[in-house]
Automatic annotation (TrEMBL):
Name the UniProt record assigns to this protein: XRE family transcriptional regulator
Location of the region described as Disordered in the Swiss-Prot/TrEMBL record: 1-21
Species, as recorded: Micromonospora polyrhachis
Upper taxonomic lineage: Bacteria, Bacillati, Actinomycetota, Actinomycetes, Micromonosporales
Domain of life of the organism encoding this protein: Bacteria
Amino acid sequence: MAASITAVRQLTPPPSHKPAPDDLALAGTLLVEAALSAATCRDATAARDLADHAARLAGTHDTHPDRDSGDIAFGSTVVDLARALIAASFGDNHQAITIHQYATSSDAWGRLPAEHRAAHLIDITRAYLDLGNPRTAGQALVTADRIAPAETRIRPTARTALTAVLRTGTTTADVTRLATTIGLTRP
């Protein structure tokens, strides 16, 4: 968190200068990472403040006239996805799912890198599980596997989430197939 904030200070130009879109994207990405780190450290105020700062940069970045239209690694949707994970980390799973559903219904969601989308789906499964919705948690994992199989098959978080879904005993054929594919169950 401290390293990200320090780097953002170096990238942020004085108010009198118009920042370049790449600088906005980099600073915003660092702020998102710092906000997620603050949530991991259980600092709700810092997580919220950093996400708010990232959102302001995303608003500027999204509408910047010099922005490359193919530049989708940072923007409002990325900040919303981070806000969903932050809400989940503080146990506000209803809010997390609401934000997640909003962000994933945007056009920008489909333009994010496949690995980013899959990683988010894996991470949001905890909120679904905590709300007692293992079916949707399992479907999120199956969707993540379709988007970027390596994310689902290699990440320990995905294996843990899939194991939790399997333990509920309410799995679909797709979830069972995924579990077999990654070696959590026998064929």
